[in-house]
Amino acid sequence: MSNTASTKSFERAAAESLTELESQFNRIMEEKILLEGEVGEKPTLSEENQRPRDANSDLQNQIVVLQRKVSLMPVMTTTPVVTSSPLSTAAPCPVVPRDLELKDTSPSPKTSILGTST
Fold first, then answer.
1. Taking 60 as the threshold, does the pLDDT of residue 1 lie above it?
2. What is the sign of the dihedral through the CA atoms of 52, 54, 60 and 63?
3. Residue 86 pLDDT more than 80?
4. Residue 87 binned pLDDT confidence (cut-offs 50, 70, 90)
5. DSSP 39-82
6. Beta-carbon-side half-sphere exposure of residue 50 (alpha carbons within 13 Å)
7. What 3-state DSSP class applies to 3?
8. Are 80 and 93 in contact (CB under 8 A)?
9. Number of Cβ within a 10 Å radius of residue 100
10. C-alpha–C-alpha distance, residues 77 and 6, integer Å
């Protein structure tokens, strides 16, 4: 092989290497630009993420306050009112504390409506 042929072969190999290095350089530069863009978005995303976190924290605090209020309230129950007419709307009875006991107020079989014994 002549000196000229070996020089041309060397130049060809150098050109191919240079082309390959340029291709790698361009790919790495594109990746760098994309990563810089993502890093630039981070403060904005962090701020947008913090808003829902703050709202969640506020709601958790409100839940705790409401649970405390409910635990301090006396326990009440409601009972439905039985009506004789199916067309009338049934409204709940007033709230009655659980510790209030109702006594049987129905008349005994030996007592008349006026309260006198028979």
1. no
2. negative
3. no
4. low
5. HHHHHHHHHHHHHHHHHHHHHHHHHHHHHHHHHHSPPEE--BPP
6. 6
7. helix
8. yes
9. 7
10. 103
Q: How far is CA 35 from the centre of its chain?
A: 31
pLDDT digits (tens, 9 = 90+) for 21-53: 999 999 999 999 999 999 999 889 889 999 999
Tell me the Ramachandran region of residue 77: left when phi exceeds 0, alpha when psi lies from -120 to 50, beta otherwise.
beta
Query: What is 7-49 written as a DSSP string?
Result: HHHHHHHHHHHHHHHHHHHHHHHHHHHHHHHHHHHHHHHHHHH
Tokens of 20: 């390959």
Query: What is the per-residue pLDDT for 66?
Result: 93
- Confirm if 116 and 104 have CB atoms less than 8 A apart: no
Question: Which residues, 6+ apart, have CB-to-CB distance to 94 below 8 Å?
Answer: 78
Count how many Cα atoms sit within 13 Å of the Cα of residue 27 in the half-sphere of its side chain.
6
Which residue, 81, 72, 78, is CA-closest to 95? 78
Q: What is the pTM of this model?
A: 0.39
